[in-house]
Amino acid sequence: MKFSIIKWIKWIKIIYKKIKKETTIYVDERGYERYGGYDNRLIHRDIAYNYIYKKGYRNGVYTKRFRDYDIHHKDGNKRNNSINNLQILTREEHEEIHNKQRR
């Protein structure tokens, strides 16, 4: 399939707009960092999926779909999205940790 110069330029502009929107980061009303753009994805979930879940799923550590897990910030800082600070937990495990912290 041949691209004309005009089609190629239009395609580049579309990709650029998408990248630009996704690299905009903001903090939502709950204190979590999100990518700007059309889907407003949570950054900590993207990091956990790409750097923790995929490998664990291949090795049998995680057996459920990613959306069935919660992501826990070990240090309690919702903006610390380093891999070492994120932990993939079931909803029950996550609630148990936070219930203990509230006591």
Describe the structure.
- This protein has 103 residues and is of the alpha+beta class.
- The chain has one domain: Homing Intron 3 (I-Ppo) Encoded Endonuclease, Chain A (Alpha-Beta Complex).
- Helix content is 45%, strand content 16%.
- A two-stranded antiparallel ribbon has the order 1-2. Strands 3-4 form a two-stranded antiparallel ribbon.
- Strand 1 and strand 2 form a beta hairpin.
- It starts with a helix and ends with a helix.
- The model has no long low-confidence stretch (mean pLDDT 86).
Which helices and strands, and how do they pair?
Elements: H1 5-22, E1 25-27, E2 33-35, H2 43-58, E3 69-73, E4 86-90, H3 91-102
Antiparallel strand pairs: 1-2, 3-4
Question: Tags for this entry?
Answer:
two-stranded antiparallel sheet; elongated; Homing Intron 3 (I-Ppo) Encoded Endonuclease, Chain A; about 100 residues; about 45% helix; two-stranded antiparallel ribbon; single chain; alpha+beta
Oligomer: single chain
Order of helices and strands: HEEHEEH
Strand content of the residues, in percent?
15-25%
- Report helical residue fraction: 40-55%
What can be said about the biggest beta sheet?
2 strands, antiparallel
- The coarse overall form would be elongated
Number of helices: 3
CATH class: Alpha Beta
CATH architecture: Alpha-Beta Complex
Radius of gyration equals 18 Å
Number of domains: 1
CATH topology: Homing Intron 3 (I-Ppo) Encoded Endonuclease, Chain A
